[in-house]
Design brief:
Elements (H helix, E strand, L loop, with lengths): L4 H8 L1 E2 L2 E2 L16 E16 L4 E13 L11 E4 L12 E3 L2 E6 L7 E6 L3 E13 L11 E10 L7 E5 L15 E3 L3 E16 L2 E14 L1 H20 L9 H25 L8 H32 L1 H29 L4 E4 L2 E4 L3 H15 L16 H17 L5 H32 L3
Parallel strand pairs: 3-11
Antiparallel strand pairs: 1-2, 3-4, 4-9, 5-8, 6-10, 7-9, 8-9, 10-14, 12-13, 13-14, 15-16
Helix pairs in contact: 2-3, 2-4, 3-4, 4-7, 4-8, 5-6
Length: 451
């Protein structure tokens, strides 16, 4: 309840038997003098909470505003006098404007926690205990490596810096239960630090430049929880997927269950983290990590599909491949067979009768030809198709088919050649990715921090 002007005056006419009244020529609309300095002091009692979705910080603070008022004086022999809170309507007070302020509520128990005091050196001091909510612009691209910095400016709304200047003044510090000054506050997710910026700041709006006193709020995250809840499990899932390379490819259920279960676990973890983390315009740091881990497991599953295809190709089409290569060998050896057949017609055949049946004897050239033909038809992996004479137009396609054939045979080899290769390549790639990831994002987080 606000008192009227006469009621207020009646309460302050007599203070400890001393008569006190405002000067007759006093005007509450005029500052005490040119270039009046207003001192700001803030003690943070508690950080009530940080709302990432609304980008707000709620604080319990003790705010102290003081300035020199040469037109007022205290009775002789008194160091100060406490004036009623309603008396602020009768004297000049700075039109304090707090940038980024959303709401402010003065604390009260039996009465409001607010005081107005006039000192013997003609200084007016206003102290308020309040709960304030500050709007802070946050960027969560580096989440959870992000460091949020909020600047709160205390300035005048209508007085320019030629009329009123704002500066910081240290007030009695707030001590914690252990007797140490509270410089930072630890929350479940954040470490909140407050720093008063003593440099001069100017706000340009309205009719000119306005002086401002700035309070810096720094919010850094507790990274330990994110390492244990997200980074460590996802890394273990990727490492477990490498165990599938040691499982025999023919054991399809065991290897498939291992890879599919790991993949689904990472997808579920990514969905949970995306739902519980604050929104950002780009992919967040932790989302990049989880997506990369999911890709590594998916590639391990894709590698197993390639191995299964190679095994199926090796078993189903091996006979057809042998027939094709035997036909290619026959085409290659046809001129030699024709020459040998002509020589055989002009050469008498020697032999011995055995049981009424004449058995011819092969010459040395025929034996060598037989061995050569047998050798080229038995070698199932020899690239005979690459040496077919007279097929110059399709030589590129033939080479490509031969290379693809060798690749599929390598993937489907019974001794697990591709699995051995993947067991060596996958850990190296993941190790390099980890180094690049942490180096890049830690440097970005360090660059985003204010000087």
């Amino acid at each position: 309840m606000l008192f009227s002007y006469p009621a207020v005056m009646s309460q302050i006419l007599y203070i400890d038997q001393y008569a006190y009244q405002l000067p007759t020529n006093y005007s509450r609309n005029i500052p005490p003098g040119k270039n009046t300095t207003v001192y700001i002091g803030v003690n943070v009692n508690r950080v009530s909470g940080v709302d990432e979705n609304k980008e707000e910080i709620t604080l319990d603070v003790f705010l102290q505003v003081s300035w020199e008022e040469t037109r007022l004086k205290v009775p002789p022999g008194m160091p100060y006098i406490d004036l009623p809170w309603e008396f602020r309507q009768l004297i000049w007070t700075p039109d304090l404007y707090i940038w980024q302020l959303q709401t402010m509520r003065i604390l009260s128990v039996l009465q409001e926690m607010a005081s107005l005091r006039l000192y013997a050196n003609r200084t007016v001091s206003v102290s308020i205990g309040a709960t304030i909510t500050i709007k802070c612009e946050m960027n969560f691209v580096l989440y959870p490596l992000d460091v949020q910095n909020c600047a709160i400016d205390f300035s005048s709304y209508k007085y320019t810096r030629e009329d009123v200047r704002f500066e910081w003044r240290e007030v009695a510090p707030w001590f914690g239960l252990a007797g140490e000054q509270r410089r930072e506050f630890r929350l479940p997710k954040y470490v909140v630090t407050f720093v008063t910026d003593k440099s001069k700041h100017i706000r340009n709006f309205g009719e000119g430049e306005h002086s401002a006193a700035r309070l810096q709020i720094k919010l850094s995250r507790e990274l330990r929880g994110y390492l244990l809840e997200s980074y460590l499990p996802s890394s273990l899932f990727v490492i477990i997927s490498w165990g599938s390379f040691c499982v025999i490819p023919e054991i399809v259920p065991g290897r498939m269950v291992l890879l599919v279960t790991t993949l689904l676990s990472l997808v579920t973890m990514f969905d949970t983290v995306s739902t519980n983390s604050p929104d950002a315009l780009e992919l967040k740091c932790i989302e990049v990590w989880l997506i990369s881990c999911t890709i590594f497991v998916f590639l391990a599953l894709l590698e197993y599909f390639v191995v299964l295809f190679g095994i199926r190709y090796d078993k189903s089409w091996s006979r057809r491949r042998q027939d094709l290569r035997r036909a290619a060998s026959a085409v290659q050896l046809a001129p030699t067979l024709h020459i040998n057949h002509t020589q055989r017609l002009s050469t008498p055949v020697s032999g011995t009768p055995q049981g009424g049946v004449f058995s011819p004897q092969l010459s040395v050239e025929d034996e060598g030809l037989k061995q050569q033909f047998s050798h080229q038809t038995i070698q199932r992996d020899s690239p005979i198709l690459d040496t077919i004479p007279g097929d110059t137009s399709g030589s590129f396609l033939v080479r490509f088919a031969a290379m693809a054939d060798r690749g599929v045979m390598f993937c489907g080899a019974q001794h697990g050649a591709l699995d051995k290769f993947a067991l060596m390549v996958f850990p190296i790639c993941f190790f390099l990715f980890t180094i690049i990831y942490w180096t890049t994002y830690l440097s970005e987080a360090h660059r985003a921090m204010p000087d």
